[in-house]
Amino acid sequence: MGDQSYSWDNFLPYYLKSCNYTAFNPALYNSTILPQEPGNFEPTGGPLSVSFSNYADAFGTWAQKTYVSVGMKVLNSLNAGVLNGSAYSTLTIDARDGYRSTSESSFLQAAILNGTAPTIYKNTMALKVLFSGNNTATGVLVRTAGDYGTNALNFTLSARKEVIVSAGTFQSPQLLMVSGIGPQQTLPKYGIQVLKDLPGVGQNMWDHVLFGANRPVNVLTASAGLNSPITAGKLVDRFLANGSGPLAAFGAGYYGWEDLPNPYRANLSNSSIAALNTFPEDWPELEWLPISAYLGYQTNRQREDPRDGYNYASINPGIIAPLSRGNVTISSADMTDPPILDPAWLTDPADQELAVQSFKRSREMWQYLTSQGITATPYETLPGLNVTSDQDILTYISKSFMTIYHAAGTCKMGNTSDSMAVIDSQARVYGVQGLRVVDASSFPFLPPGHPQSTIYALAEKIAADILGQSTPPPGYSMAGYYEARSNLSQARSNGIGGAAQSNDAGSMFRSPGSFMLLAMGAVSAWALYFL
Q1: Backbone angles phi, psi at 346, to 5 degrees
Q2: Can you name the residues that pair with 165 across neighbouring β-strands?
Q3: Which of 72, 154, 251, 321 is in Cβ range 3.0-4.6 Å of 256 for a Cys bridge?
């Protein structure tokens, strides 16, 4: 980009501003190595709660031993700018009650309590960004859904200064295209007048995927609750009582990063090695995600579990130096028609080769667990130890892989020399005035770590840019916020609202309420702000 405001030293303050860190409870993690660097967080940060699960997952402790045994050293933290190695991850979890700290429960609720909240239009979809004759964004045409026989209502929201689109990796480019900003060869097909020909809108989609073998293990995993409704009920009761137990954790919670090592690397083609060498030297090729559950073919994790009395787990490589690129386009000029997605996962030969060799490395890790008595049987339930050839492994992976929900890059940031760039370094859309895109679609590339923190940091930085400041504005006023959160925690412990919230509390089956989920990323909800 040529913009030094995105260098590590200059961008770091925007990471720090949002987070309110609570150190791990050593009594919960006394059987594991858990070094952490509290200096990675600002003591005055907030309102996003960052901590650790109030439960140390048993399989996670063995994942730690496994990763160290195969060469992934223990890191002091995953928040210090270095990923190669392994560590327990911080999570966006409120340590006081075990509940997820979301963008709504943190930023929005803090703003409401402080009297600084934006006006929110519920059940309202943006249909089109509106422009004046000189290509300046003036507002948004929106539709509010009707209720109980009431017709939907279309109306215009006018912008005093700018329109900021934060609709996510899939629908930010869709909104630009139906508004006349996008590829010249696409828009006229649907009767859309081209306001600005930007061929990069909807292109350059990055994503991370994972896959792995499934085996029975001799430790408690999510299978326990599926095998026994009584056990499931006890786990729910424990979480609702004090925010602890397995439902307070997103599975194993311990992650590793590395480049594919030998002897597996020696099996990659020269062209794949050359392609992977285009990434920076400190950019890992693989993430290792242990999951305390039966993944199967990842169509429905609850239903796919064999429920045969065994506890199941998986060790999953994730491709985080992907060469495959997907895209998003439109099917009509109407925002109520879903966009057309082509993720193009694992279509690049280098991704396929890396996937096959990393799957073989995962079996090396399972051999270590077997030597430690952790596997419950000598068999691999899925795909089976008879699946050994590269082609058979790739076939299994192609049928069972799953996104890690990190889709990004479809309104990429870039300088004027990049013909595929959609926005500049201050997130301003090229060729028009008064319009920005701020979400995961804005990324020029998908970072190798999980992107939630980077999305928050980008939002903080663009807010500072809008205010004309080169450093983060003053910190959040948290007066009253934590008192209100404490009252909510007490209400939950008394059973008030607990049932409605429990499925979002770090269940092993859900995408993690941690650095994994895209706060403003690949989601379909609209968040349009008018300044």
Answers
A1: 55, 30
A2: 437
A3: 72
Residue pLDDT, tens place only, 411-432: 999 999 999 999 999 999 999 9
Q: What is the pLDDT of residues 236-277, one digit of tens each?
A: 999 999 898 999 987 799 999 999 999 999 999 999 999 999
Alpha-carbon 423 to chain mean position: 22
Exposure string (b/e) for 27-53, b if CB count within 10 Å is 16 or more?
ebbeebebebeeebbbeebbbbbbbbb
Distance, in Å, from the CA atom of 107 to the CA atom of 514, rounded to the nearest integer, reads 15
Nearest-angstrom CA–CA distance, 397 and 354: 11
359 within 8 A of 378, measured Cβ to Cβ: no
Percent of the chain with pLDDT over 90: 74
Which amino acid belongs to residue 133?
A: G
Measure CA of the first residue to CA of the last residue in the chain; give whole Å.
Answer: 26
- Looking at residue 180, its amino acid is G
Place of tokens 């307070």: 248
Hey, what amino acid is at 211? Answer: F
- Give the pair of three-digit tokens for residue 100: 């997820």
Q: What pLDDT, in 10s, does the model give residues 426-472?
A: 999 999 999 999 999 999 999 999 999 999 999 999 999 999 988 88
Write out the E strands in 375-508: 402-403, 435-437
With a cut of 90, say whether residue 230 has pLDDT above it.
yes
Task: Tell whether the model's pLDDT for residue 493 goes beyond 70.
Answer: no
Active site (catalytic) residues: 406
Q: Which of 219, 246, 199, 326 is nearest to 28 (CA)?
A: 246
Rounded to whole angstroms, the Cα distance separating 20 from 43 reads 7
Distance CA(41)–CA(36), nearest Å, equals 11
Residues in the chain: 531
**Residue 372 to residue 382: CA distance in whole angstroms:** 21
- pLDDT score of 531 more than 50: no
CB 294 within 8 A of CB 312: yes
d(CA 312, CA 483): 40
- Contact assessment for residue 436 and residue 462, using Cβ atoms and an 8 Å cutoff: yes
Query: What gap in Å lies between CA 12 and CA 463, rounded to an integer?
Result: 15
Q: CA 141, CA 20: separation in Å to the nearest integer?
A: 37
Cα–Cα nearest to 242, from 378, 95, 132, 43 = 95
Mean pLDDT to the nearest integer, 51-79: 93
Identify the H or E element spanning 112.
Answer: helix 109-113
